[in-house]
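One chain given next:
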Amino acid sequence: MDGEASVVADAIRCLAAVCSFLRKRSLLSAARKVAPLMTHYSAAVRAAAIAFVAASARVLPEADVFTQLLAMVSELLQKEPLTLTGELGDVSCCIQSQATCVVSSW
């Protein structure tokens, strides 16, 4: 696997683009692997991971968003966002980094 941040970010963006074509089981499996990248040191990888989680939340039934997807990302959040499907900035302001909350205007 290529660990280059730009390659990882591009791969996650590709996953986000095809979310609507994935089965629920595959989508949740991918979310388990992508969610920890919401705290990655690279802003591009963080943004792509947040976009993937938001895209997943738009595709999944609301019950699955709250019972499964939110459970995956809740330990990474300082506070729970109003919705996981919101704009990138809405969710990213809730993400914990190593020491402080990541607040960016992507």
Observations:
- The longest helix spans residues 43-59.
- The chain has one domain: 5-92.
- The chain has five helices and no strands.
